[in-house]
Write a structure and sequence with these properties.
Blueprint (H helix, E strand, L loop, with lengths): L1 H4 L4 E7 L8 H12 L7 E7 L6 H6 L5 E5 L6 H9 L6 E6 L2 E3 L3 H11 L3 E10 L14 E3 L5 E3 L2 E2 L2 E3 L9 E3 L6 E5 L2 H5 L11 H11 L3 E12 L9 H16 L2 H24 L3 H16 L1 H14 L4 H6 L6 H7 L26 E2 L1
Parallel strand pairs: 1-2, 1-4, 2-3, 6-13
Antiparallel strand pairs: 4-12, 5-13, 6-12, 7-8, 9-10, 10-14, 11-13
Amino acid sequence: MEHQQRQPSVCVIILQRARALHYQGLDILSKCLESVFATGYQNYKVVLMDNGSRDGLPEYVKSYGDKIKVIRSDVNLGFVARNNLALRHIVADYIVLLNDDVIVDSNWLVELVDEAEKDHTVGACQPKLRSLRDPKYFEYNGACGGMLDIYGVPLTRGRIFDLSEEDQGQYDKTAEVFWASGAALFLRGNILSEIGLLDEMFHAHMEEIDLCWRMRLAGYRVLSVPKSVVYHLGGGTPLPDKFFLKQRNNLIMILKNYGRGSLLRFLPLRVVQDSFSLAYYLVKKEKARATSMLPAYLWILRNLRRILISRYSVQERRKVKDKEIADAMVRKSVAIQHYVLGRKYFSQLGGLPHGLRYYLAEPSKKGRM
């Protein structure tokens, strides 16, 4: 009887990022920890990845006693590598990768565990992400779960490109999505031994989308669980080369995960689309975006052998055909729909997967850039 009532174990990994860049420093981390320790779930532990801090973190953490396990790295391993370092130390039924600039609701973990326990084909879940700056709006980096169009362009339920919608309950339905945000990524504990850790080639940006794509290739599903709510500050650790990393990593992800036939079909069209995007950014004088595109493609060409080795490993583990993968994607270009056809909101998009209702009602036209 006791075994039947036992709660699954959860390990919450919080990555403490570089304080030199994270402008609110220890203050936002302390609020994050306070909210995590106020959770209504019982069977969990917290692991804090200390990125060689010098802002009073060791003294602050001592106040929590044995509630927190600290893993310290004095070497600058990069965002993805530091997460992997923590993941290698963890054994639990479920694992959460949580940014240090979030505040969680008290029932956030209960809802995620309950949903994952219903179906063991669920490999990952994501809570609803609202903006900590303005909680009426969805947070840019995840909103209510991520999707991908067939050209590899990411979007979310609640945010397309730079427009985030106001949360009016329009996506308050648990739904299958393509990927879950790394700001609060809930994972089945044994899944990483099957599909591998985060890909350290990415360094930062889109590593969670790549991970979720590999989950799908292994036959797992990804869910958005809006009953679980997390507030994310976002943008606290700016990267000077973020547009380059996003463009480069997106191409790496496509090259790794698509089968040969899909790659031959969609990659040339993606290159054409990027050419039009480059022209658009130049006309709009968005220099940072425009100047990132050519270096990203050059990096891909210089490191093609490395990418192909990673691709071979992914394709060897594949259990699901690309037709099934494509059925979970947006089948029409999101860029064309958004910029050419003027479809600003997720509920207006065409080409969504058949048989799945992703929204409860049309949102009123309220969004912010």
